[in-house]
Design brief:
Blueprint (H helix, E strand, L loop, with lengths): L1 H13 L13 H5 L13 H4 L10 E10 L5 E10 L5 E11 L3 E16 L5 E15 L13 E16 L2 E8 L5 E2 L8 E2 L3 E11 L2 E10 L2 E13 L2 E7 L4 E9 L2 E11 L2 E12 L14
């Protein structure tokens, strides 16, 4: 069993598509929107999607999400984040963990800072933010300690920077650059080296009526790019439905609100990792405050 786990770890590390943190998007609401979230980013998962979005939260918030693949046994991901508003700035902290049980693990720690730079009448604003990230790749080496050049873990530091701008009422645009410096990982000396993917993502969101939003984003990542589109609707006072479309999959989800709690559930259609299911729970707390734009999430 240990040999099988080690083989899985080696295969994971060697994968050109989904190794090294590339497939670990976060947040159940974001998945329901096909990950077209860079111009929304109005919950605590903004530490991953666009740190500038932290300024749009009306209260402090704690967020948890968990997902797994129905077709890849042992492959799971979890995420936790906290957003706070001390004074004129907003801060966020997060932890993302994923990997294959007893084989390989990926962890990212986030520390974000955001501030509104410009605020105008009728909801127009501009905000900026940055995230410092600590990324760690670990391999279970029990029973293989004598393999020459094999490292149990490798840790690297990187950063993201983003902006969020609402030029006119009901329209928000966002841009983020991720993994500045492109740190590389090499758990097997002399083996293939892989870098965290350098990403540039931009998007625009339109509130085209009181209870409906449209989102469009474009992700540029070596060796290609992807366009994502999504829509969400409030079908009842505390119920929202979402759908998204990307190059590789179709997604959908719901959000159910109750007082300051929100439960999110989402799925992604079969792709290279099979069917993926994700659930999330958000809890707003603290005094309500004036926000930049007020965000999109009314349910």
């Amino acid at each position: 069993m240990r040999a099988l786990a080690f083989m899985i770890a080696v295969a994971w590390i060697a994968s050109p598509v989904h190794a090294y943190f590339e497939a670990n998007e976060v947040g159940a609401r974001a998945l329901g929107l096909g990950h077209s979230f860079v111009s929304v980013a109005d919950d605590a998962s903004a530490v991953h999607w666009n740190p500038a979005g932290l300024v749009t939260l009306a209260r402090n918030e704690f967020l948890l999400s968990y997902d797994e693949s129905a077709d890849v046994e042992g492959l799971r991901h979890g995420f936790a984040a906290l957003a706070l508003h001390p004074g004129p700035v907003s801060v966020g902290f997060g932890w993302r963990h994923g990997g294959v049980e007893d084989a390989v693990g990926e962890d990212v720690l986030y520390a974000s800072l955001a501030r509104t730079a410009v605020r105008r009448s009728l909801g127009a604003y501009a905000a900026g933010g940055a995230t410092l990230k600590l990324a760690r790749l670990s391999v279970d080496t029990r029973g293989f300690e004598d393999v020459a050049g094999l490292h149990g873990s490798v840790t690297r530091v990187t950063a993201d920077a983003g902006i969020l701008i609402a030029p006119i009422p009901n329209v928000t645009t966002g841009v983020v650059v991720r993994n500045l410096g492109r740190p590389t990982f090499d758990v097997l000396q002399g083996g293939a080296r892989s870098a965290l993917p350098h990403e540039v993502e931009w998007g625009v969101s339109l509130r085209w009526r009181e209870d409906a939003w449209l989102h469009l984003s474009r992700l540029h990542r070596d060796p290609g790019s992807e366009t994502r589109a999504a829509a969400e609707f409030r079908v009842a006072q505390s119920l929202g439905v979402r759908a998204g479309l990307g190059r590789h999959a179709i997604t959908g989800g719901i959000g159910i609100g109750w007082e300051r709690w929100t439960f999110d559930a989402a799925f992604r259609s079969r792709d290279i990792l099979g069917w993926t299911y994700r659930v999330g729970l958000r809890r707003a707390f603290g005094a309500e405050r004036a926000t930049a734009g007020g965000g999109f999430d009314d349910f």
